[in-house]
């Protein structure tokens, strides 16, 4: 049973309805949580840990990206941990926020020849791992994060999104 309390906010039109997004998030993040626990990569507390998902548009994500990261452009997903955490540390009662830009997800899915849901699934997993302290700045860290993403996506029936690429 998942120890995640997933909160959803849909800020703009064009996304599936909130219940559909919530069911998808429960399935995807629940699978990610179960995989991380089974691989002994990440413990979770006995009490639920809150994860906030914001389904936004490019304009909103561009504003957030500009304010918080100094990059005046939209991006597919932004993650904001509630508290600093290192991979493998026990999270607290609030894990953090994941913000996703619909138009960017749509464009990238087309470019990658994937369905919108497949790409959104990958970005949810990617953002979730960032909340848990994983990153892809250094090659070794990128390899670790990508291996976890690939394993989680395989459990969800999706192919390796990094096949044939160097670590990001």
UniProtKB/TrEMBL annotation:
The subcellular localization recorded is: Cytoplasm
Among InterPro entries, the record links this protein to: MetalPrtase_cat_dom_sf_prd, YbeY, YbeY_CS
Q: Which cofactor does it need?
A: Zn(2+)
E.C. number: 3.1.-.-
HAMAP family from the UniProt entry: Endoribonucl_YbeY
Q: Which GO terms describe its molecular function?
A: metalloendopeptidase activity; RNA endonuclease activity; zinc ion binding
Positions with a binding annotation for Zn(2+): 126, 130, 136
Sum up the protein's function in the record's words. Single strand-specific metallo-endoribonuclease involved in late-stage 70S ribosome quality control and in maturation of the 3' terminus of the 16S rRNA.
Record's GO cellular component terms: cytoplasm
The biological processes this protein is annotated with in GO are:
rRNA processing
Does Transmembrane show up as a keyword for this record? no
The record's comment on cofactor binding reads:
Binds 1 zinc ion.
Q: What's this protein's name?
A: Endoribonuclease YbeY
Where does the protein principally reside?
cytoplasm
Q: Does the keyword Acyltransferase apply?
A: no
PROSITE patterns per UniProt: UPF0054 (PS01306)
Sequence similarity: Belongs to the endoribonuclease YbeY family.
The enzyme's main class, written as a single word, is hydrolase
Q: Which UniProt keywords apply?
A: Cytoplasm, Endonuclease, Hydrolase, Metal-binding, Nuclease, Ribosome biogenesis, rRNA processing, Zinc
């Amino acid at each position: 049973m998942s120890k995640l309390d997933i909160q959803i906010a849909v800020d703009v039109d064009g996304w599936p309805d909130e219940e559909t997004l919530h069911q998808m998030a429960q399935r995807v993040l629940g699978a990610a949580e179960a995989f991380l626990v089974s691989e002994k990569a990440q413990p979770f507390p006995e009490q639920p840990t809150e994860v906030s998902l914001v389904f936004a548009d490019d304009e909103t994500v561009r504003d957030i990206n500009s304010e918080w990261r100094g990059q005046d452009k939209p991006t597919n997903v932004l993650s904001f941990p509630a508290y600093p955490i290192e991979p493998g540390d026990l999270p607290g009662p609030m894990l953090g926020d994941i913000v996703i830009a619909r138009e960017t997800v749509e464009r990238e899915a087309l470019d990658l020849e994937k369905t919108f849901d497949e790409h959104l699934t990958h970005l949810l997993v990617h953002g979730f791992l960032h909340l848990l302290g994983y990153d892809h700045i250094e090659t070794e860290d990128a390899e670790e994060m990508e291996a976890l993403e690939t394993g989680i996506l395989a459990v969800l029936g999706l192919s390796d999104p990094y096949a044939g690429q160097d670590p990001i």
